[in-house]
UniProtKB/TrEMBL annotation:
It comes from Massilia cellulosiltytica. Keywords: Hydrolase. The keyword Ribonucleoprotein does not apply. Coiled coil: none annotated. This is Alpha/beta fold hydrolase. GO terms for molecular function: hydrolase activity. It holds the Pfam family Abhydrolase_1. Residues 33-277 form the AB hydrolase-1 domain. InterPro entries: AB_hydrolase_1 (IPR000073), AB_hydrolase_fold (IPR029058), Carboxylesterase_BioH (IPR050228).
Amino acid sequence: MANYTSIRYTSNDGLALHARDYPADAGATGRLPVICIHGLTRNASDFDEFAPIVARQGRRVLALDVRGRGESQRDPNPDNYTPSVYAGDVARFMADLHIPRAVFVGTSMGGLITMTLAAKHIDLIAAAVINDIGPVISEKGLARIAGYTGRTAAVDSWAAAAGYVRDINACAFPDNVDADWDKWARRAFAPDAAGRLAPRYDPNIAIALQTGKLRLTSLPLRMAFRKLTQERPVLLVRGTLSDLLEERQAAWMRRAAPDMTCVEVPNVGHAPMLTEPVALDAILKFLANVP
């Protein structure tokens, strides 16, 4: 039985969007909710182990399917697949649910969305966990991600789906075993209309990558990061094998935000699952000091 309920809501431009709602343990009151936002080609199911752990600490956890992913509707206009539009969807979601403030956990693209939200709606953010991303990223990792995003064909079996996710992610998760890849595949793929297993995202999300619209850095994003880290508590989680947030980019972030808390997850690349013991311990300690 699922340990969450589904929330359906409508974006400002009329798309049907979805989120998973993990209730806080019974008896817990007064703690701010946690909003989890996944990476570029991922979906809310990425948090299906992390979210219940946080909920047991007494916080409601809301894991979003960003437009074009998971159970959220695909956008007929690919130009809307941008962090600014995604951030607007998050603000609408919070308004619809009457959530004035939340703690954010953003993995990769989810971290960019959190920073973008901070630029215009810092009042919505009480604190943030930024997972393996920053306002400056590595060309190496971006090129790797661009190489597979939007190019994944449907497959005929779960074994083939697991093999695919292993082939493109083994460099980041060298310790994964077959069961890990199968679990990942069942989050990332779903049966399509023809009965084959297809990625759970709109391939048009790749257009920004393929056309060079997603840059390694930008002044607005650096300013948003500084605003977020100057005005709110922030925890940076980084995989030591990450090719998207390499040590050089992480060092820039530490210099720009000397008060930011940082933790590194050993022998993991982009991006940590957040259930690794060192990551989870750091996050739970961070949350313990947030309302």
